């Protein structure tokens, strides 16, 4: 297959390479050509769609331009739909796109058409690229636009699953931690959009028994800076300490900032929270479902480390279900309580009430201050 050699991606499928390149293009604010069954459209993220881009596309003679939005964003705009949908852009107006895609007070101003396969793939690409889930999609006449990267819808929709299969350890070393001197960091590549994922092996867990495990999604603000808006930093340090003081364990530090939405979208959501939205409504206003995270690759990391049974430290029923679904034996009697603060109590209550997290406020209140 000469096409595989083409990109020197020996051993990688051409479809996967195209998807990975498309993610880089979209993150850089450029468009890509999305193809399915002989149909091709240009896709560009709404957040990159400025007046200059709009004018260039109009000059190129593009037609049938639409703004594709996910169902939660359509609901916010006053047009509830079970699935994603699109509104027509008869003139390429960057200001209108920004309003419909992002502004908190916006209302839908045109009929909404159901999303087709190309539209769904466009949103999947933007999600993988961690940009705002709103896509400008249009038809490009013949040779009017050159140099666009082409990517196939089927390859886009298959991408996440193929990444799990490619997960591999790329580096490991001992890193003694305060309070956990015998600790090893093991770095995996793959799983979600070629990001690096880290397993932190604390002590020497007995792999023949259920291993203490925490799946910890990255939270820059909480883990590193001690943000008062969430409980992540406490959960992180408490989990490592419990593993070190007990029989050892494995903490997976997962590159899933903002429940998988990415740090930029998390800050957009925090801006809405500052206006009074709760954690889930803020995400929904931007077009996100309750939670974007998948944990299938986390289970695969554990498997590659020789773990068959886990005692998982979490309050999140989705994590428990995902580990079980992946075939691991799961004991789930260990909760991870952060410190309640005036700033995070609403966040914790929302997680309990809207996402079914096992958060016991009496137990939190009873926690002795450190
Ligand atoms: N979108 C969004 N993400 C947030 C917000 N606050 C925290 N996060 C993210 O939420 C995730 C929390 O991760 P975890 O602590 O692993 O997860 P959890 O789902 O609460 O589950 P457990 O802690 O295991 O009970 C991290 O990715 C944070 O960056 C928020 O207000 N909005
Ligand atoms: Zn946090």
Give the helix/strand layout.
Blueprint: H1 2-6, H2 14-27, E1 32-36, E2 39-45, H3 51-60, E3 63-69, H4 71-76, E4 85-88, H5 94-102, E5 112-114, H6 117-128, E6 135-139, E7 149-152, H7 153-166, E8 168-174, E9 183-189, E10 196-202, E11 211-217, H8 220-224, H9 232-245, E12 249-254, H10 263-273, H11 279-285, H12 296-304, E13 309-313, H13 317-325, E14 329-334, H14 345-355, H15 361-366
Helix pairs in contact: 2-7, 6-7, 10-11
Bound molecules: guanosine-5'-triphosphate and zinc ion (ZN).
Short description, anyone?
One of its GO terms (molecular function) is GTP cyclohydrolase II activity. Zn(2+) binds at residues 219, 230, 232. The protein has helices at 2-6, 14-27, 51-60, 71-76, 94-102, 117-128, 153-166, 220-224, 232-245, 263-273, 279-285, 296-304, 317-325, 345-355, 361-366; strands at 32-36, 39-45, 63-69, 85-88, 112-114, 135-139, 149-152, 168-174, 183-189, 196-202, 211-217, 249-254, 309-313, 329-334.
Shape: globular
Q: How many E strands?
A: 14
- Give the count of helical stretches: 15
Strand content: 15-25%
Query: At the fourth CATH level, what is the homologous superfamily of the largest domain?
Result: GTP cyclohydrolase II
Order of strands across the main sheet: 5-4-3-6-2-1-7
The stretches of 5 or more residues where confidence is low (pLDDT under 50) are 1-5
Question: What is the domain total for the residues?
Answer: 2
Distance between the termini: 61 Å
Coarse structural class: alpha/beta
Ions, cofactors and other ligands present here are: guanosine-5'-triphosphate, zinc ion
CATH class wording of the largest domain? Alpha Beta
What is the CATH topology classification name of the largest domain? Rossmann fold
Report helical residue fraction. Answer: 25-40%
Sheet having the most strands: 7 strands, mixed
């Amino acid at each position: 297959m000469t096409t595989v050699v083409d990109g020197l991606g020996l051993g990688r499928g051409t479809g996967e390479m195209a998807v990975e390149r498309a993610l880089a293009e979209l993150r850089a604010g450029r468009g890509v050509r999305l193809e399915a069954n002989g149909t091709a459209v240009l896709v560009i993220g709404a957040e990159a769609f400025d007046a200059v881009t709009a004018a260039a596309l109009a000059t190129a003679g593009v037609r049938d331009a639409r703004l594709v939005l996910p169902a939660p964003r359509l609901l916010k705009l006053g047009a509830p739909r079970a699935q994603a949908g699109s509104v027509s852009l008869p003139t390429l107006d960057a200001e209108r796109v920004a309003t419909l895609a992002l502004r908190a007070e916006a209302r839908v101003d045109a009929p909404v058409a159901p999303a087709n396969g190309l539209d769904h793939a466009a949103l999947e690409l933007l999600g993988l690229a961690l940009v705002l889930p709103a896509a400008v999609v249009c038809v490009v006449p013949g040779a009017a636009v050159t140099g666009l990267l082409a990517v196939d819808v089927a390859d886009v929709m298959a991408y996440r699953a193929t990444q799990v299969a490619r997960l591999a350890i790329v580096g490991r070393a001992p890193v003694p931690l305060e309070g956990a001197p015998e600790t090893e960091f093991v770095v995996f590549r793959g799983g979600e959009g070629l990001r690096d994922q880290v397993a932190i092996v604390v002590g020497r867990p007995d792999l023949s028994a259920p291993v203490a495990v925490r799946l910890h999604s990255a939270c820059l603000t909480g883990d590193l800076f001690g943000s008062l808006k969430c409980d992540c930093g406490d959960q992180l340090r408490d989990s490592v300490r419990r593993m070190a003081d007990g029989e050892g364990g494995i903490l997976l530090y997962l590159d899933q900032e903002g429940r998988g939405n990415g740090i930029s979208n998390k800050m957009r959501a925090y801006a809405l929270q500052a206006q009074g939205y709760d954690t889930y409504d803020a995400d929904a206003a931007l077009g996100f479902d309750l939670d974007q995270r998948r944990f299938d690759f986390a289970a695969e990391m554990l498997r590659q480390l020789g773990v068959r049974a886990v005692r998982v430290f979490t309050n999140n029923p989705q994590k428990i279900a995902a580990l079980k679904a992946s075939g691991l034996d799961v004991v789930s009697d260990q909760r991870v309580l952060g410190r309640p603060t005036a700033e995070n109590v609403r966040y914790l209550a929302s997680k309990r009430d809207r996402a079914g997290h096992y958060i016991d406020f009496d137990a939190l209140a009873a926690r002795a201050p450190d």
